[in-house]
Protein 1
Amino acid sequence: MIKITQKTLDDLEFDAVIQQLSSYAITHLGRNEILGLKPFASKNEAIGMLNLVHEFISSFENDNRIPNHGFDAITEELKLLRIENNFLEVEQFRKIATLSITTNTLLKFFKKFHEYYPLLFERSEQLEQTNLISEHINSVIDKYGEIRNDASETLYSLRKSIQSVRTKINTSFNSALSHYNSADYLDEIRETVMENRRVLAVKAMYRRKVKGSILGASKTGSIVYIEPDATQSYQRDLNNLEFEETEEIKRILLELTNFIRGFKPLLEQYQLYLTLIDVLYSKAKYGKSINAIRPQISEAQELYLRDAYHPLLLVANNQEGKTTYPQTIQMATDSRIIVISGPNAGGKSITLKTVGLLQVMMQSGLLVPVHERSKMCFFETILSDIGDNQSIENHLSTYSYRLKQMNYFLKKCTKQTLFLIDEFGTGSDPELGGALAETFLEVFYEREAFGIITTHYSNLKLLSNELPHIQNANMLFDEKTLLPIFKLVIGQAGSSFTFEVAQKNGIPYSLINRSKKKIERGKIRFDKTIAKLQKERSKLEKTERALKQNEVKKGLEAEKLETISQKAQKKLQSYQELYDSNQRLIYLGKKIQDLGDKFQENKRKRELLSELFKLVQIENSKKEKLSNKQKRAKLKEENRLQKEVEQKVAKIRKEKKAAKAKAAKIPPKPKHNFKVGENVRMDDGRAVGSIDKIEKGKAIVNYGLFTTKVSLERLEFVKPKT
């Protein structure tokens, strides 16, 4: 069983990767799932997830893109479905319908394109495909979120009665309005709405002459608002009908809830499935953003990271327009431990973190930014000791804390372990701490564990040379500027460049010389030899890069010269043809001029025509002669080209015509001959009203609470329900 501690995840900044990954989720549940992401406990689970993400990312590159998977969580709705005699609201049903439609769309898609997405299809096959949920909900609730009139016979009857009563209310009110307005009892505003009812705006002095109930008055008291008696009677009927309508709607929603309750387990599966799709989508999008791939998974214990990038550093540098340097690292059973040495700020820690973070990402089912030929294996344990190791809570010094960590390493370290230790052995006396670190390293080596450490200790560099399955490595530095090149070189220890860096930073040479005398001659010679080897290696690297650049440059120059030569040759040929043509024209011009001068002298037309005819014959003889067969072939080729051009032009015209027809508006529906009393709606609205009056191409439409005057062209006929 694989187990990676939270400390290791913190040391490797795995949480920062998770935060970046979660930004690609499009659903709340998907984001929460990603934020809780940990390395898988099982190798097979991790490989299965890697394969699914790899398959999902391929959809970004082909024409059969996976459909949208967005949905609103129905967690609360699923809880409410557990409660008997409880009904869901309309908006909650719409969320359930959308979730069902989205899931079934994906299931159909993966079934259709199972050859493209075999693993995603296999995962989707575990779910039942049904449209009963969405169809049943849509039969009760329309696309505007309203209960349909035909949701039940009772509701249809009630709404028909409500519409009839509203018509009577408006008719009676309009009659009273017309009567009292002609009697001059009403104010200029004539009417208004109070408590959602139409009322007459009656002048206060005439309030006793108007039959009805007073519902209020203006602030000044000059206007009294009265609801006519006839209208009031119909309003009571309307209130009763609306109450019955509300009760019927509750009954319909309760019935629908009971129907949906039977699909509760399936809806839970649908929500889990869409959450998984969102997690896969997020991992694929994040992988694409860092050019990540699924590496080859090796059954043997080996690690080959070619052109590996630290994902957090890559994202940060891309945002700032900086260059990120990849590293290539190889580890196997015969070279399972790498000791990286060299001066600070050279990239040792980043290299160590890159290996650890990519390993954790891969074991969490995430694609990693490496070359496609890279290989990775699984480790049961990943141990790390990176960063500031001082424990304030436990009052431990850096060295005490590190010793405590090493004790933990000794207990957990096996051949299935990857250990990562930054600045191994620091925090105590260099010689004593170095000796203890050497012993620890020997134990890790004997247990056949894989690991990477960074150190400045010479004894650890020597031990790496002595033991066959440990490799020395260093980060290259420029031998002149002593600036890092950020390239890892396996097989050679790195110098700390202690005295060189001190001299570069202005420390007097006399003090540096005194310092050298205070330490063992052998150590100086050893460090000096390493530094010299590094400088030579750096020179070779620079020479190799320069040679490659020159080779590329020469190749480009050769291509450029070839292109220029071809252009010059073509231009020269064109000039030659132009020159020959001009010379021939000059010759003909001179010849015709001579004939003209001669004719000017002797006036002999026949002689002039004879000479001109000879000249034409001579010029024709120089032209290319074609046989009848060649002429026919040439004519046939010209006709073929003409026909091909005509076909292409016809095709383009046809496509343009089709596009124009598609873009054209839908032809208007046949005009309806509207009549008084018919149900209508406006072309841009949903409310249904009835026509009270038609005059001069316009109709007065009664909507119950109010009337409006509108052009007949803007009305649509609404067929009454039967």
Protein 2
Amino acid sequence: MIRTLAKSVREYKRSSILSPIFVSLEVVLECLMPLVIVWFIDAINSGAETGELPMRVILSYGGALLGMAVFSLIFGMLSGRFAAHASAGFAKNLRKDMYYAIQNYSFANIDKFSTSSLVTRQTTDITNVQMAYMMIIRVAIRCPLMLIFSLVMSFTVNVTISWVFLALVPVLAAVLMVVIFKVHPIFERVFHKYDNMNRSVREDIKGIRVVKSFVREDFEEKKFKATSEDVCKNFTLAERIMAVNAPVMQFCIWLSFLLIFLLAAIITGNAMAAGNKAGTVSEGDLTALIMYASQILSAVMQLSMVLVMIIIARTSAERIVEVLKEKSNIVSPENAVQEVKDGDILFENVSFKYSKDAEKFALADINLHIKSGQTIGILGGTGASKSTLVNLIPRLYDVTEGAVYVGGVNVKDYDLEALRNKVAMVLQKNVLFSGTIKDNLRWGKEDATDEEMIRVCKLACADDFIQAFPQKYDTYIEQGGTNVSGGQKQRLCIARALLKDPKVLILDDSTSAVDTKTDAIIRKSFRDQIPNVTKIIIAQRVSSVQDADQIIVMEGGKINAIGTHEELLAKNEIYREVYYSQNKINGENTAKIEEGGAENA
């Protein structure tokens, strides 16, 4: 895990190294200052006994302390600056690396994590790791050094009293380990709750119009309240456990002071009774020991804070590494085919399921041949796996069994970019990005000219409404295309796909928001102007596919029937039922059609 995360440090290695160096220099000066104070106090006491205290002694010790304090401050500031620079840069690189990794994911990889979880990992989890990294390269270096140097220096002052520190440190460490052991599982759980809360917010924002139209604000508020309270409850439990740390630390600090004074009094009393003035604990020694006690125990307290942050960040780091280590299960092979010859499509004994553990196939026993240039319609009820079928053509998913061929070549043998550039797909969910109409169209072809864009927009019946805008093709589209209608959005998405100059064009229920007249005009322009492009149209309306060369009727993940409009109307019950329900044919005409169908049969 650490090795994977460390790759994102990159150009911030220098800052990551300089921060610990400067913090080490800061600690050395802070640990030497109590010793200088001891010498200063001893010099004052010696001067008081002799009645002489030269000004140069005061100035030399005072100047030394002032210089050490100034340099300690400078080193601390530099350490903080480099730590902030390194941690912010590390977080920036992590976000970039995660983003690029996600861009390479297949649909199956996205399904594995879920969109809400990926957003949480890109935001909250990276922020936690950033804070932990900053504390590791600064505070986590400072605390152990402060602990070790202060212990060593305290032993140089008084060996007997210094054993107090060695006795208390293991107690604090034991408390800390118990806290870590108890808190880590809670934080593992709480970040999954974060995903649920993020999912709730995302759904509400995305579906705000539906929420308001059905007056379901109260319901959504209650749902969000439940998820946020769930997060709050887990965090509160973790904070309660971690809160034990502070009082235990304070107790140990005051106990150490008490023991220092007690032992100093005993040692001094015994030395005075024995007439050994040199064996007493001087004021300077006592001052230094108290300062070292404060440094040692405050170092342990700060270390506990760092470890708590690391506990939180550890769970976040594991979630980030999962994303970074996840490899797309769909990649281009070596020596991949770079050119798609034509739009000929063949499904050979294809079966597919979304998960290896799934009990049932989403698609089963699909054998289908679509000739290049044909127009194919696909009809079927909800859940018939119509979208699943066409998703296999540009290799958005890989087949579980069998093979899919485009232009006579197995799709697994193509370079992914080459394949998807020639298989244009307008998905069910039409997505437009913030930017001008030109910006959105150029997703299909980056260097497209104005003439090319106008041509495809005319094909998709989008040019008329674009020309009606004051800024025409420079009209700004809001995020998600909220400032255009559903039908306009669909036509822009179709134009964007056409700009790729595809060999195969797949329209996945992409004219559902378009009126029947415009739908018919679009299909006619496709038939007349792009006859060599294989066109696959998934639709709910029979009128959208009835003039297709072949119509595929799907049911339960299988092909129920294939034929022309007339053939299916005569022979296929499912198709006939859909056609009658949409066209409201009266009983007499229905009987005639059925009679005619029976004779033809």
